TrEMBL record:
The keyword Metal-binding applies. One of its GO terms (biological process) is hydrogen sulfide metabolic process. Residues 34-228 form the Metallo-beta-lactamase domain. It comes from Cladosporium halotolerans. This is Metallo-beta-lactamase domain-containing protein. SUPFAM superfamilies: Metallo-hydrolase/oxidoreductase. Pfam families: Lactamase_B (PF00753).
Length: 327
């Protein structure tokens, strides 16, 4: 029997703990970006992973702070976890990852260095976006400690985790299956929201439909832990971290079991055509493709990110038909 606990551990923040016979999952919501961050632990060994952590970035003042990441560290210390991996589902365009910061803070605390991991297609994303932002190749080649292959299996204590390729939102997008828990990032959202956008370079509504069918083909009891939730858009009071596969099959507004591929593609492409750029688009891409590291500072100790002269749509319109990696 699963045990759930809901905790409000900071203003406007929601933290839930779900304990199952196989794993303990702490989910921490970041209200500013709507991101769900996860800590998944083996209850026997207390080895754990962190999935998609957030660094606070204020676009108006261009400042980076660590309040959200520090709350994750406090939670890890409180529970006595040893973080063995920090896992990214993809190169996010709507928030800055705290992966590198967490690695540097946790290493001296636990006397081992957690590896920052992502799917192997990150190289294609780096090759596409790196030159556009003038990112030196030397800052990209060692950005991640481990590039995971499709269906690769790795341990978390006595637990077994498997990576699964879930293209659509982006071409490099992956999920992580740990027991009956699937951390599916920006693919399937909660049923009242539907699915993630597919209009970024390499994104594909056709690929996303196939990815959702892969997820909804899993056993009914499996939990799909989403990467984002915006309760205000769904007229809910609180964000929800997961729904079961069966609940998604029956009720997802975009990809329930009666939706055809053609109908989904038409709906998704039409919706995406009216979406604006994420607020943190350019900062997120430049930092996240570096694994959460800032650019190298100038001799004066200042850090600079690049902004294109044109907006996202104009800047990439000529590349819309090009794929920066195979899906």
């Amino acid at each position: 029997m699963d045990r759930a606990e809901l905790v409000f551990d900071a203003p406007n923040s929601v933290h839930t703990e779900i304990t199952t016979p196989m794993a303990t999952v702490d989910s921490v919501h970041h209200p500013k970006t709507g991101t769900w961050q996860y800590i998944v632990a083996d209850p026997n060994t207390l080895d754990a992973v962190i999935i998609d952590p957030v660094m606070d970035f204020d676009a108006a003042t261009r400042t980076v702070t660590t309040e959200t990441a520090d709350r994750l560290v406090s939670l890890v210390k409180k529970k006595g976890y040893r973080i063995v991996h920090i896992l990214e589902t993809h190169v996010h365009a709507d928030h800055v990852t705290a992966a590198s910061y967490l690695q540097s803070v946790l290493e001296p605390h636990q006397a081992c260095r957690p590896a920052v991991c992502i799917g192997r297609r990150i190289r294609d994303a780096q090759q596409f976006f790196g030159p556009k932002y003038g990112v030196p190749s030397a800052e990209l080649s060692s950005a991640f400690d481990r590039l995971l292959e499709d269906d690769e299996v790795f341990p978390i204590g006595e637990l077994e985790a498997r990576i699964v390729h879930l293209p659509g939102h982006t071409a490099d997008h992956v999920g992580y299956i740990i027991g009956e828990n699937v951390f599916c990032g920006d693919s399937v959202l909660n049923a009242d929201l539907g699915t993630a956008r597919c209009d970024f370079p390499g994104g594909s509504s056709k690929a996303l439909y196939k990815s959702t069918r892969k997820l909804l083909g899993l056993p009914s009891r499996h939990k799909l832990w989403t990467g984002h939730d915006d309760p205000s858009a769904a007229e809910r009071r609180c964000p929800v971290p997961y729904m079961s596969v069966e609940e998604q099959r029956q009720g997802n507004r975009h990809v329930h079991e009666h939706v055809t591929e053609q109908a989904f593609q038409q709906m998704r492409d039409e919706r995406d055509a009216g979406l604006g750029d994420p607020e943190l688009l350019h900062a997120s891409l430049q930092i996240n493709m570096r694994g959460g590291r800032l650019p190298k500072p100038t001799p004066q100790g200042e850090y600079y990110l690049r902004l294109p002269q044109l907006g996202f749509g104009d800047c990439y319109a000529e590349h819309a038909a090009k794929r920066w990696c195979h899906v």
